[in-house]
Amino acid sequence: MAIWNLGSINADIIYAVPHIPAPGETLASTGRATFMGGKGANMSVAIARAGSRANHIGALGPDGGWMLERLLEYGVDTRHIAQIETESAQAIIMVDADGENAILLHPGANGEIPQAALQTALAEAETGDWFVTQNETNLQRTGAALAKKMGLKVAYAAAPFSAERALAVLEYLDFLILNEVEAQQLTEATGKTPDALGVRDVVITLGGDGADWFGPNGKQHFDALPVKPVDTTGAGDTFTGYLLAGLDQGMPMPQAIKLAATAGALMVTRKGTADVIPDLSEVRAFNG
Predict the structure, then answer these.
(1) What are the structural domain ranges in the chain?
(2) What is the pLDDT of residue 274?
(3) Eight-class DSSP state of 268
(4) 100: burial class by Cβ within 10 Å (0-12, 13-18, 19+)?
(5) DSSP secondary-structure letter at 254?
(6) How many Cβ atoms from other residues are within 10 Å of residue 153's Cβ?
(7) CB-based contact 254:220 (threshold 8 Å)
């Protein structure tokens, strides 16, 4: 099968800082590096490195050739990434000594993905494939509705969180993943707990406390592997990509979550985003 990812692609400029700056504070960085990232690109790379077929649907500007090449290098199908005149998206990321981060995002081309790119891509999809999107692009509701109509399984990573956008796709979803804060925000917006949203599978990630799965048989908790984080950027995307790849490969949800949790734990021990997402052999060999 295959996973079709309507997703963002960013140039991630990462600054190491002693602490996350307070409002009005000027702070000198202690290091700087540039990676390819974006929640969509991170997930596509994770899906590919987990052994599934990742088809990315997105857009890059004239400055994005190097990111297209890297996606190809990492095993992602890039045929449906449109080349447009708007500059590619950028993220300014500050990472402190404890691995926590703060992110400023400039959407750029991510907000102008042509509808033709989405339609052309999904014309190749087959019943039973997965469609996934996140809240960093346009066409989310259009894509989810079209994928559902075509018999694809639809997944949504509700980040960066917007109650309005999450509610717009909720009726089409088979799988929803959010973090603890996003889950609380969605509960406040809907008045419903995760098990009452009408989505078959809801996964809530809890950082170092693991993850909760709300499925057909109720709630199940999964512990995280104990590791010392150096950079949490991209760990959630790695978790999501690996989880979807596991489901795509026929794993039951508990097995897919455990695989994803291992990949996410390994990811936080590395500095960077899509370029350092571990491959399946590394994840299987990693015990925390």
Answers:
(1) 3-7+38-81+111-276
(2) 86
(3) T
(4) middle
(5) H
(6) 22
(7) yes
254-257: list long-range contacts, CB under 8 Å, 24+ apart.
254/213, 254/220, 254/222, 257/203, 257/211, 257/213, 257/222
Closest CA to 239 of 285, 201, 216, 206: 206
HSE (side-chain half, CA atoms, 13 Å) at 144: 25
Report whether 202 contacts 179 (CB < 8 A).
Answer: no
CA distance 167 to 158: 10
Q: Give me the residue label for tokens 């990492």.
A: 74
- Rounded to the nearest angstrom, the gap between the alpha carbon of residue 231 and the centroid of all alpha carbons in its chain is 16
Question: CA-to-CA distance for 225 and 287, rounded, in angstroms?
Answer: 8
For residue 247, give the H/E element and its range.
Answer: helix 235-248
Tokens standing for residue 35: 């990676």
CB contact set of 52 (below 8 Å; sequence gap of 6+): 1, 2, 3, 244, 245, 248, 249
Q: Record the tokens describing residue 88, joined without a space.
A: 């590619």
Question: Which among 259, 267, 278, 249 has a CA at the least distance from the CA of 203?
Answer: 259
The catalytic site residues sit at 237
Query: Listing from the earlier edge strand, what are the strands of the sheet with 153-157?
Result: 77-83, 54-60, 3-6, 130-134, 153-157, 175-179, 201-205, 211-215, 218-222
Q: Write down the pLDDT at residue 285.
A: 93
Could you count the other beta carbons within 10 Å of the beta carbon of residue 233?
26
The CATH code that applies to domain 3-7+38-81+111-276 is: 3.40.1190.20
Query: What token pair was written down for 261?
Result: 């949790």
pLDDT, averaged per 10 consecutive residues of the chain (288 residues), comes to 96 92 93 92 98 98 97 97 97 87 92 98 97 97 98 96 96 97 95 95 95 96 92 91 98 98 95 90 88
